[in-house]
Design brief:
By secondary structure, this protein is α/β, with parallel strands linked by helices. It contains five helices and twelve strands. Bound molecules: glutamine.
């Protein structure tokens, strides 16, 4: 099993470092052909408008959309979650919403850089809290009924799952805690055992 990390811009290196600490093989995804080499994909944090431009200029947009519509597992963190969402508020009119996750997000909804913060959140039925780092984070304003809320902060979802899509408004790669990445690796492993798409 190999997990790809979109490496156009942003915090991709930290995701690969954390995957290596939990002994999951990873590779950078920069070109369309890279998507054929992976079983699951992480869209990292960074700047969603810049990533949108780069997805277009590298011709990754169409193959990435296919990857998602095939139901192959993906995890988006912060800007990555914005890219996956159905609708983006306070975004740029030409920025990409891949519509793989039925949420409406508000960019920079928790405030500007100076308002970045860290807090402990409770995830689903996990025993120990998770230290979550929020950096110019998007707020999930609303979520469809198929979206499962795994964690909340201040009454808003911050970790959600819809089928093969996992998304966090914070940065799980910026702590040494590999539990969210392990959870995602479990999703990728399960999808590999029972692929949804007969082409695989
Ligand atoms: N505010 C950034 C954006 O709109 C996201 C910030 C982040 O990924 N840390 O893309």
């Amino acid at each position: 099993m190999r997990i790809g990390v979109l490496a156009l811009q942003g915090a991709f290196a930290a995701h690969r470092d954390l995957l290596s600490t939990i002994e999951v093989e990873s590779r950078e995804v920069r070109l369309p052909g890279d998507l054929d080499e992976i079983d699951g994909l992480i869209l990292p944090g960074g700047e969603s408008t810049t990533m949108s431009n780069l997805l277009r200029s590298t011709s990754l947009l169409d193959p990435l959309s296919l990857f998602l519509s095939d139901g192959r597992p993906v995890m988006g963190t912060c800007a990555g979650m914005i890219l996956l969402s159905h609708r983006i508020l306070d975004g740029r009119s030409d920025q990409i919403a891949l519509d793989a996750l039925d949420v409406t997000v508000r960019r920079n909804g928790y405030g500007r850089q100076v308002d970045s913060f860290e807090t402990d959140i409770t995830i689903d039925d996990w025993d120990e809290t998770f230290h979550a780092v929020f950096i110019r984070a998007p707020i999930i304003e609303s979520a469809g009924s198929d979206v499962r809320v795994l964690a909340e902060h201040d009454g808003r979802p911050v970790l959600v799952r819809q089928d093969s899509v996992l998304a966090a408004s914070f940065h799980p790669e910026l702590t040494a805690d590999g539990r969210i990445h392990s959870y995602f690796a479990g999703m990728v492993r399960d999808a590999k055992i029972t692929p949804r798409n007969s082409k695989r």
